[in-house]
Write a structure and sequence with these properties.
CATH class: Mainly Beta
Number of helices: 0
CATH superfamily: Immunoglobulins
Strand content: over 45%
Helix content: under 10%
CATH topology: Immunoglobulin-like
Number of strands: 9
Shape: globular
Number of domains: 1
Strand order of the largest sheet: 1-2-3-8-7-6
CATH architecture: Sandwich
Structural class: mainly beta
Amino acid sequence: VSLAVAAGRARVQQEPLAQTTEGMEITINCSHPDIQTSNTIIWYRQLPGRGPELLSLAFKGSKELPNKAGQLSVSPDRRWSSLCLSRPRWKDAAVYSCALAD
């Protein structure tokens, strides 16, 4: 999936499909090679039949997502980020996406 976002010419790229079974850890990667210093990385998900739900905003480093049993990590050069869901459940089945914002 290639997603053009509102942050001007910035682009992000994600794997087209990632699957796991219930309870098995999964990592979803996002590449944003054209990230600018002012950009914030946004991760969100969209459950079937629902609107987008913000998961987290990130600038650098790693942060726990306790209510989602996961962790969001940003590379030191900020050119990629990843969302790791340590114990996904069926209710977590969704489209997970990243974007950049000013």
